[in-house]
Give the backbone structure.
Amino acid sequence: MILHLGGDVVVSMKNIIAIFDIETINASRINREFLHIAEEEGFVRRVSDDEPKTFILAEIDKKSVVFLSPISSSTLLKRSSFIDGIALDSKETEGA
């Protein structure tokens, strides 16, 4: 299954490692350092020109990628739960 991160960007759910609210950057020195290093190393991809609300850590082709998304972490969580629900429903239907 895939998760729409905003703009034209979708990522396979199996590639997503973590979804963080952008406010955690302000609350955590470690998160600030991580994002700063990821930017320096070229691992950060902006999903759109809008102000980011979330950063998503993913592994694509055995490389770490950080996506900056204008979609809130709670909305992405709801979308991922919805996708998981669809997958579970289809498995139950197949077994019936």
Notes: The chain is about 45% helix and 35% strand. The longest strand covers residues 54-60. The chain has a mean pLDDT of 85.
